[in-house]
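Good morning,

Both structures are done.
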Amino acid sequence: MNTESPLPTGNAPEWSVSDLSGALKRTIEDNFGFVRVRGEISGYRGPVASGHVYFSLKDTNAKIDAVIWKGVFGRLKTRPQEGLEVIATGKITTFAGKSSYQIVIDSLELAGAGALMALLEERRKRLAAEGLFAEERKQLIPYLPSVIGVVTSPTGAVIRDILHRLEDRFPRHVLVWPVRVQGETSAAEVANAIAGFNALAQGGRIPRPDVIIVARGGGSLEDLMSFNEEVVVRAAATSGIPLVSAVGHETDWTLIDHAADLRAPTPTGAAEKVVPVRAELMSFVADLSRRHAGAMLRLSDRRRSDLRALARALPGPEAVLSGPRQRLDLAGTRLAPALARNARAHEQALQGLSRRLEARSPRVALAKLRAELAGFARVLANARTNALEKERTRIAHARDRLATLDARARNAFGQSLIQRRDRGAALAERAERAFGQSLHRRGDRLTSLWTLIRSLGPETVLARGYALIRDEAGALVRSVGEALPGRALTVQLGDGSFGVTVAGGEPGGPKPAPRPLRKGPAPAGQGDLF
């Protein structure tokens, strides 16, 4: 057993857990209200059901919990990925539920160009594995589109270069969908523009483009990141309209270049690829027209020569018609006898049909049916008479049997009533006798129990001259040691009780007289015990 005294606490105040946690939270937030932390993302599993994101930032020696709230996560330009090295900007705070500290992130940026290139390479491989960059998915660019859709910034030099080159080569109807080509909302705007051009209906108020150009001028890798976002790549890959990518300079490559149907080195190059040179096209068409006219002239001369050769080989009209003319004359001489034979054959057939029709006249058939009907009526009348006689006989027999059964049932029911009445009277008599015996036995038992209770009760013992002594609280005094001098006690006898005071109280004080507590005559032969 440890007998050492506890350490002195002095004047140190007592803290509740909540108060201490709140003080620590205020101290950390006041000193680390804005920090930039570089580390590798660990334990990232995406947003939870509430939309918030939880993960950790770590380096070789330490790790810190991180949280991104739902509203901030939707505005992030760089989305967190497992194993990605980033620079997180936010504030340090505590979480009282786990007694831990964490960083609440407001923005994320990649830690360096090497990490950015690794991220782009990983994204390119993943999208390529889905087949978004497959050559068999790419569409042919129309040779001469009627309407060209351009997705770019309306205020930059890119749109002016495209319009100027189209005007020089072959003027076309151009629809410009203005977007931001740099910034946090740029990727979503470009993807929505591609989807918006595809949503236009054929023959609608706004013409549907035959080809789409997504264009932007040159810039750094970070400036072109909008065209590396997954949402832009998927929009380009799923576009139903052929799409030309013209982002940056010739040496700049973005992920949209892999998903587009055609990549142009510059926005001006995109304009050159979607339309031909008008003068060259007109010269080419004129040359084709001359070649077509010469070919048609040569074909006409050759067909005319062939027709003359075939005409010389054909027979004359008389030779062609002589055979059919003779066959027509022969058929005319045979026609009159054949018509007479045909008329006689039809007449004989008509006479045979007339005889057969008379044998099957409706009058003859009606007479036969009337005779058969009369025979059926006689048979039916006889059957009805026989059936009625049989039914009358059966009903008479059933009536006799029913009367016999009724008489038997009446006799049996009367006898059953008499037997049940006698049995009920006997049972009532037995029940009355048994109930009286049960009452007598219970009365005797109750008398015995009452006698036993009176003999065992304290009143009987007290009546023989014994007494019960109680203190002020009503508890029994069982030993002399409990009767302290000057203590007020209560003595209970068989016919009442009274109060007493134990002798040997305060020195010189008068002895209190016994005070009866209950009214009634004093018991005979019982004096003051003290």
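Second structure follows.
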Amino acid sequence: MVTINFAQNNYKPTVESFEDETVLTNYDTSHGKLSLSNTHVRYGKSALQWDWNGESSMGTSHFKILTLDESPLAYGDYFPASPTLQMSLYSEKPQAGTITISFEKNGIKEVYFDIELSFKGWRRIWVPFYNMYGNPPKKGEQIDYDYFKITTNSSNGTLFFDDIIFSQYQDDRHQYPDEIVPFIKSDLNLGDDHWMPLISNYNNIKNLEPNPVSMAIRMDLKKFEQLIDQDLTIDKKYKVYINTLRDMYQGLQIKDNGETVVGPPLTFKEEQEYFDKNQQGDKVFNDIQDLGKVLKKLANFHDRANPAEQAEIETMFIAGTKYFLDQGWQAGSNGGTRHHIGYNVREITEAFFIMRQLLFDHGLLDEVGGSLHWLFNLGMLLNDENTFHVNIDYLNTQSYYHLMLIFLFEKQEMQAEMLRAYSKYMSITLAQQKEEWGFKVDGTAWHHNGHYPAYGIGAFQAVPKVIKTLSGTRFRISTAGHENFKRAFLASRIYSQPFEWGFGNAGRHPLESNGIHSLKDEFLQMAYAGNPQGTSKIDKDVAGAYLRLWGKDDMLNTSIFTQVNGIPKEKLSGYYTFPLAATAVHRRNDWAAIIKGYSKYVWASEIYVNENRYGRYPANGTVQLLNSKGEEGSGFKQEGWDWNRYPGSTIIYLPLKTLEAKKSLLMFRSNETFAGTTKLDGHGVFGMILNEGDGTNADGPETKAGYPGKLFAKKSVFSFGDKLIYIGTNISSIDKINPTQTNIYQSYLTDTKSTLYTSSETIKKFPYKAELKKDSEMGSWLTDPYGNGYHILSNTPIQIKKERQQSYHNKYSINTGSMNPKGKGAKETEGDYATAWINHGLAPKNASYQYVVYPFLNDDEQKNFDDKIKNDDSFTIIRADSIAHIVLNKETDITGYVVFEANQDLDSGLLLKVSEPALVMLNHKNHNSLTISAVQPDLNFPEYKKGKFRNYSRPVELQMTLEGKWSTFPADYIKNIDNSGTNTIITLECINGLPREFKLNKL
């Protein structure tokens, strides 16, 4: 190995790892001794040892300060970042006194802070300069200090220092206080960051005085403990391979030095710290998750090993535990940051739970338990309930582990007290519907300020175990909490088909087969947890859903549900609304149409720094048709997908380089409040105003957003029985280079010879490209490769092509070259597709379209599609203009209204006008009665600052004027009915975008 003498080359290190004796010449010291030591080391082979007697100091001017551009920031300059000192300290035992760390300029101390030496082991700290004492800089301000100094008032002592990053910019959200640097962010409400272990929460546990417990409670506690043990037990088919376990353990490169167990740094988020191989040597470390995987393996096989193997496993496990503690993973330590820690410590938590008796036998249970109680913020359960706020991250990564960690208290009295607090916390938060995140009244699962099933799935995997474990006991989750969670849990099987939730609500994970496939066990847990009221041992709703999804492959539970308990398989057919996601789902004959929009309160998609880079259009009034085979079986694949061509969307067709978002993070919301849906008798209506011109960014510090093409359209979808009627009007843009289009379909071809039927010809050729023109009174028509038929009613030529498409993976950025590792290097993709679209031309002013879709026709219906549409006189489009889209379904006498403009004469049927833009359905089959379903879709969230909302709906009012004199039964949301004149005016209170359905009788 070649040693570089940096001092001779006038090299000033950004990070100092103390690898060469020459570094000592760059440090001044008084009343102390500096030396290099290999006793306690992080990166590299040595660290700085400082021994002192009496008041002492050491310092250096030999360092470099990193600029913002030189700092490793995951999101660039998107999130505010500030200069931060990052360093590691090691103390072999708790010591008296303090040290003061300071920076000087021209001999004057500018900033400083103190650290008490009452700790043992490693401590990693991230201290932003703006939080230091003295004359601190402002947040984000570049610093230029010229001297780094450490002093102490302790009479004597020894400390080790390593990997000092004198200053790098660090994301301001991520520097965490702990017991040795408690002053960090002392001016903030630290509870706003739910990942941050808080000193106050840990003190709640220290100060808790538990009450005595009864024998009945002790029996419940043992039962819960055993249930968690059973959940963590691996299948009997897995055998012990001690050599494999040895190899995994040896890969950690740890060793017992007689005092403790040492090894490479045990890191978390190490990629956020500047690293210089020249200074620090090879980057050898153990990530906390990797250690957890090793300890979990050892724990899993301990009980099924023979005595000799058990002894060896125990030796390895205890060594790994001591290493964990020595590396600073102790109560009161945050290691610089612990943001999003819950994802990384699952395995190690499970390992410590499984091996709790071994830890107790070695006198380590209290210390390990305390470490995890701190890390998981368990003490927050003891806070005032007014501070409880539901958070899906918590439910996903911490809720089940909180239950588990309760049993790392040695005393059952503490277990019982914490379990009472836990049950109360879970009951309250699961019931909440008006918080920033969590489960809303319509069943949507909110995270990142919107419905986000990819995050909800984590909660759906964790919470059922909690509800099932505690069911039937005095610690059971409350009815309100159980009920609200059940609503959201079951909603997932409505907006998924049969298991996938599709691209519209995929967030930053489009076309990645995301869905509820993994929830089989959780549906069983919820079924056997009983109903929310606690009056039935089996929840019939959940059991019926399970039977539909998994029953045919599970004879045991099918027999229990159907034969023993008489529970039938559910039939999921009808129209379902999720207004807080601007989503509707129309189901018939084992297929589903997922209809998606966005608004002022509901974002279009999550475009991330290296995920969903081309995700501008998945909610532009899209309709995804899914059969029983899910996304891929219905023609939706990542390979070769043209990100402009989401079916049903109205878009400006852009080169992918231009389509890619300019911002690293974007969750676009328009300024339009009109996006919603209503339903009646299993049918439904969806409408939205699409406006890309101006809006806001739903997450992060930037709020104002918009697209230059200023695309605008009024769009609706009427879902009646086995058909969907699509209408678009007022389509415009100012883009004179790229065409504005409405996509009919984009379907992956499993066979390039797949037949497409059209009103002009039958297409088998590949490649193929043509324009389908309206050439008869019936208009033009076409089918796609999956049997969906499209009847074009408007005089709009249709573009059709079959060809091989080249595209980019959603996790690759054309403009930056960034590739998410999850994309597995597949920057460019390709596949064979059939596509069809309506071209509205360049910068259209008032374009429109009308077409009808018949999902998943059989072969005969496709071949004879012209006969099918000739014989279909079941509907009439009454109006399609800027004021309203109105369609009558003659089979049911239901008229659907999407009214975009208020106080305008509708001139069609019984509904004369509305006071606000609205969606209305009227069933007038009986001339002496009328059933109405109405929505005023403005969710009306409170805006607490420009572009930032509190995520709950407030009431809005809607007046409907009906022709003739009508009366209605009283309802709390019918505020007034005035039938004193020749017409009837009904005033409704609407909220959450949910339909108000009521009946009227003719007077």
